[in-house]
Design goal:
- The protein contains nine helices and 20 strands.
- With 375 residues, it is α+β, with helices and mostly antiparallel strands.
- It has a six-stranded mixed beta sheet with strand order 4-1-3-16-19-20, sandwiched between helices. Strands 6, 7, 8, 9, 10 and 13 form a six-stranded antiparallel beta sheet that branches.
- A hairpin with a 5-residue loop joins strand 11 (231-236) and strand 12 (242-250).
Length: 375
Amino acid sequence: MNEIDITEQQQPFEPATRRRRMPVWPFFVAALMLLIGSFVFAVVAIPISLPYYAMSPGPVSDVSDYIEVGDRPDTTQGEMFFLTVSLSSQEVNVLEWMAAKLDARVDLAPVENIRPAGVSQEEVRRQNLELMNRSKENAKYVALSYLGYEVTYNGSGALINSTIEGSAAEGALQEGDVIVAVAGEPVEFSTDAVDLIGGRSPGDELILTIERVDLEDPDVVTTMDVTLVLGPYRYEDEDGNVLDDPDRGMVGVLLSDAPVEVVFPVDVEIDSQNIGGPSAGMMFTLEIIDSLTQEDLTKGRRIAGTGTIDAEGNVGRIGGMRQKTFGAIDAGAEYLLVPAGNYEEALEAAGDDITVVSISTLEDAILFLESLAAA
């Protein structure tokens, strides 16, 4: 019988116990979240401003809500809208900058484009309100002139912008004085003063009646007569060219019109509220014309538009065209009237969502609206 050595028998396999290793990815995720959280906290807690303003689509308003023309009822079947841009009240922070980059409807405008160096936010606001006021006056004038009304201008004198060194005016007249009479003849505009002074010779004595504002109390205005002895005409312009005429008398002042009162034959009130800038001028003009005519300019359609208007009826380029295009689309407008200088920009933003029409003058806008078929 064979003997078997049990020490040589193979024992059952018993695997060695391995230590379980924790996955590494949760630590990476936690570290990443901590890093992001720290970044967000730093951005929020530390107000770091970037040199940009954010421009986004602003409110879209029915022009008729802002204009009253006499006691005439609004019989327009369609609607005309003017467009605005919403501008951030201050420079954007990092998060706002990132959000603007991700939003195709928002543009970032460099600070110097909105608020030039040395100009405060309040000064920008006042300038924009002044531009709006000028735009409203232009709109009234252009609309009423187009319809054949006679607009009257009442001047308040010739404003002295500066005096010429060595002239009769130096020391006697000063910047800000307003000439209201020359040799007893009334002056409404700067051209009146030029005509009344012209044709005189060196050595002639001339009496100018002026109004002078007290620098310490601007509410105090003094009217006085100033007697001058005219000198020979000699003036050097900004380019260094010398204009010399020894036989021609010269006072020695550079003039412009003092504030002019415009008297409109029809009572037109435009309440622009707190909206600034000149870009609603064209639409204000069209609304006034629409209110004073029997025909409905809109033909029952929804018309949006933007563009400045000058006294000759020219429509000028504006800012924020992309945002205004998006606003017009959101308002459901069928047509968008834009200055010729903004046409390509508006066309790109519009896509197939709205019909963009290039406008250079008020006449262009009228002709387009008259070409529309009734809705």
